[in-house]
Structures are given as C-alpha cells and as structure tokens.
C-alpha cells in the first residue's frame, strides 16, 4: 500500500507546439491546374484522405511493389532496428521486475571435519540446510516506478525509430526506382539525339564531297556529336551506382541486382493526395513520436533522481532449517527464521545526487527543445513539399513546351539549310537546345514523382493503418496506433 501512494517528480504532459490549423487554404488544394493533359495529370490534395500503410502502391507498378516488399523483408538495417526494439522491450520488462519481491531458495549439504572442543580431536559430520529468503524494496516515493516509466519510454522510442527506418527504407526504394528510370530515359534520349546528329553529319559529309559545304561545317558537326557523346559516361555511372544502391536496399550484394524494367511512363502519378493538419502530424510522424518518447524518458529520470535523495526502505525475511541429517530438516529445533526492516538515507555525498537531479532537469529541457525542433522541421517539410509539388507541375509544363518548340525550331533550321538558305550555326544551336529541353522534361517528370514520394514520407507514411505491428513483441508503436490516433 505504501509503495503505491506517491511517485515523486513531475507527471508527463505533452508540451504545446505552435501550429496553424492547416497547411494550405482550400483554394490551394488543386496542384498543377495549369498543366497540359498531354504532359501529365493534375493532382488534388484531399484533407479527408488518410495515408495508406502501403502508400507506394499508389504509383501503380507491380514491379515497384515487389521491390519495396523485398526490401522490407531483407534489409539488414531494418532487422537491426527490430532487434533494438525487442532489446529495449525486454529491458523494460526486466526493470518492471523490481516492483515485486525477490525470492531465493537455497538447498545445501556439506561434509565437514572440525576439532571437537570437548575431546580436542577432530570429528567428521554432515550438515544439511534448506532456506527461503524474501526481500522487497519498498517503492514508497516511486523511484522504481519512475525508472520503469523511463525504460518503457525508451522502448517506445525504439519502436518509433523502427517505424522511421521502415518509412525511410520504403521511400528510398521508391525514389531509387524513379531515379533509375529517369536516368535510363535520359540515356535513351541522348542516344536518339546522337543518332540524329550522326545522320545529319553523314549528310554534311556527302555534301562536302560534292563541294556544297565546307570542311569547317563538317568539323563543327563532328564536334557537336562528340560533345553529346561525352554526356553519356556520367549518366551511365550514376545509373550503375543507383542500381548498386537499390540492391543494398533490397539486402542483396550490389552485383546481384539486374537492371529493372520500370520507366517513368509505367509509374502512375497519384492524382489524389492525402493531407493532414499540423496537430495530426504530431501523432503521425515517427520521428516526432520518437522525440516525444525521449522527452517522456527524461521526465521520468527527474523522478528517479529526486527519489534517490529520499530514504530507501526495504523488508527482508528468511525461513529455513539446518540439521546434521537431511531427514531431520524442518524437525523441531532445526528451524531458523529472520525478519528485517531497514531504512537508509544519504547524509553526505559531496553533492553527487543533487547534481544528478540538476542534470536530469537539464536533460529534460534539452529533450523538450529537440521535440519542438523536430516538430517544427516536420511542419516545414510538409509545407516545402506542397510548394514543390505546385512548382513541379509548372516546371514540367514549361519543359514540355520548350521541348516542343526546340523540335520545331530544329526541323525548320534543317529545312532551310537543306534548301540552301540556312545557317549551320542555327542547326547546332537548335540541337543543343533540344537535348537540354528533352532532359529537362525527363527530370521534371522524375522530380514530380519524387516530391509525391516526399509528401507521403513527410506525412508519416501511414504506419498507424498497418494491420500488424512490425515486431512480434508487444509494446511497439503498432500496438498503440489506434489509441494514438
């Protein structure tokens, strides 16, 4: 009864974080309203739509789904995070054992020789014993309970760190697939342009042989072909590195992963996106929840430090028997028992415990500041991503228009030159512009997909909608998802 009365130290209260009611006004829910349907589709933000636990399926690629699922099964970083969670949960369960009495059973039997005082000669005899000892540290001031609270909070934090690793891994896989597809299409565009440039070079060489163009014009076209070819190796290197990175995400050796067949065309852009209010983000983001768990731990540590300054009470008792024969144990005259109550109070320790309490209070202040920082950065990531999505749509529209215009400009310049009324410099300029415009359009498509991934990640990844927790052990974030929401 005494142990359940008081728990010194402050009880945890979630700190307030200043946030607006919503990230965007209702007038800003349409993303990319100005985009040409031939280029891409308009996206709409729906505040009523929640983030799905398997949000990557919104991109409509079976190959992408398989890669994400494989990474979640095999990635060693995720395995390490799951093991860290189980360790923290077991440590928390172990700490909870301090709330209960400890009981030890001792059974012994010995054969001894001692000098018998009456005869002065050695005597040999047996001694058997059996006893039960019980000890209980009375948690009058709640120091043990605060310690258990701190361990539970540490395990909770590990759970949300696991969710953060899960979200980061799935987002990295999707982003890697998009990047790989973008690089492959860039290489295809460059190869197609090189073929066009070589064909035009052949025309110039033929006309030079006939005396219609100068050798300078032929050399200029050869230079532009070589310059375009020089853009291939850097992208080929990035593509290989991207495949190696994706293989590592999947838990494979880098050389084991073959080039995937996904392309930007095969990846559907989700046309309806979820959107949460800032107050909901505090519950959804695993990094915010992990920071809050650390704040809970620091709050409980203050109670532990205060309890260390107060008296410690304990009870112990023992009951047993000692006899020269095992059969005589617990017979009349062989029974032994003891009962002890003790109290201990630190009188002088050079200020060690006092400074430990001050350190715990400073640790709480630091954890509170980190929590506010993580929350505000999370709000900023959502706003930045929403702004980027709108900008991406405008960029894609502009890049598409530039590509169409440069293609037309190149055809006109080549037609004039073929008719003997044009300037080769205009052709070279148009070819360079076409390459840049085509690569810009491909990059804009990939950027729009990547920032859509970033929005799902910024909103927390939908772990609260998962049917089963990530770890089999109880107490993980999946177990309290419904309560959190």
From TrEMBL:
It comes from the Bacteria. It is found in: Cell membrane. Keywords: Lipoprotein, Membrane, Palmitate, Transmembrane, Transmembrane beta strand. The keyword Lipoprotein applies. InterPro entries: MdtP/NodT-like, OMP_efflux. It is a lipid-anchor. NCBIfam families: outer_NodT. Belongs to the outer membrane factor (OMF) (TC 1.B.17) family. This is Efflux transporter outer membrane subunit.
């Amino acid at each position: 009864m005494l142990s359940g009365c008081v728990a010194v130290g402050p009880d945890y209260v979630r700190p307030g974080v200043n946030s607006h009611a919503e990230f965007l006004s209702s007038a800003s829910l349409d993303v990319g309203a100005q985009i040409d349907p031939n280029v891409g589709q308009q996206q709409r933000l729906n505040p009523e739509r929640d983030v799905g636990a398997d949000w990557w399926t919104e991109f409509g690629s079976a190959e992408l789904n398989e890669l994400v699922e494989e990474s979640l099964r095999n990635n060693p970083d995720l395995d390490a995070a799951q093991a860290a969670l189980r360790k923290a949960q077991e440590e928390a369960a172990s700490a909870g054992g301090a709330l209960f009495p400890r009981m030890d059973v001792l059974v012994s039997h010995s054969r001894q020789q001692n000098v018998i005082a009456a005869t002065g000669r050695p005597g040999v005899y047996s001694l058997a014993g059996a006893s039960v000892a019980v000890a209980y540290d009375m948690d009058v001031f709640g120091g043990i309970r605060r310690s258990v609270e701190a361990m539970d909070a540490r395990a909770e934090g590990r759970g949300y760190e696991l969710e953060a690793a899960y979200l980061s891994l799935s987002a990295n896989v999707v982003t890697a697939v998009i990047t790989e597809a973008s690089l492959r299409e860039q290489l295809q565009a460059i190869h197609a342009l090189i073929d066009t440039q070589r064909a035009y070079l052949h025309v110039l060489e033929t006309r030079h042989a006939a005396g219609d163009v100068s050798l300078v014009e032929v050399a200029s076209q050869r230079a532009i072909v070589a310059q375009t070819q020089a853009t291939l190796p850097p992208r080929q290197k990035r593509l290989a590195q991207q495949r190696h990175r994706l293989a590592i995400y999947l838990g494979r050796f880098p050389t084991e992963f073959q080039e995937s067949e996904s392309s930007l065309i095969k990846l559907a852009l989700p046309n309806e996106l979820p959107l949460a209010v800032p107050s909901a983000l505090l519950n959804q983001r695993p990094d915010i929840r992990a920071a809050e768990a650390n704040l809970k731990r620091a709050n409980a540590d203050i109670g532990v430090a205060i309890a260390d300054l107060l008296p410690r009470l304990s009870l112990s008792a023992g009951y047993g028997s000692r006899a020269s024969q095992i059969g005589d144990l617990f017979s009349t005259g062989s029974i032994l028992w003891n009962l002890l109550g003790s109290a201990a109070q630190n009188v002088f320790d050079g200020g060690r415990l006092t400074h430990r309490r001050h350190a715990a209070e400073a640790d709480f202040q630091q954890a509170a500041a980190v929590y506010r920082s993580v929350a505000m950065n999370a709000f900023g990531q959502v706003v930045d991503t929403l702004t980027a999505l709108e900008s991406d749509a405008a960029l894609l529209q502009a890049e598409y228009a530039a590509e169409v215009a440069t293609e037309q400009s190149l055809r006109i310049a080549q037609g004039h030159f073929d008719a003997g009324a044009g300037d080769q410099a205009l052709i070279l300029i148009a070819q360079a512009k076409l390459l840049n415009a085509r690569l810009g359009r491909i990059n804009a498509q990939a950027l729009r997909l990547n920032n859509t991934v970033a929005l799902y990640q910024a909103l927390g990844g939908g772990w609260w909608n998962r049917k089963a927790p990530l770890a089999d052990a109880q107490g993980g974030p999946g177990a309290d998802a419904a309560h959190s929401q």
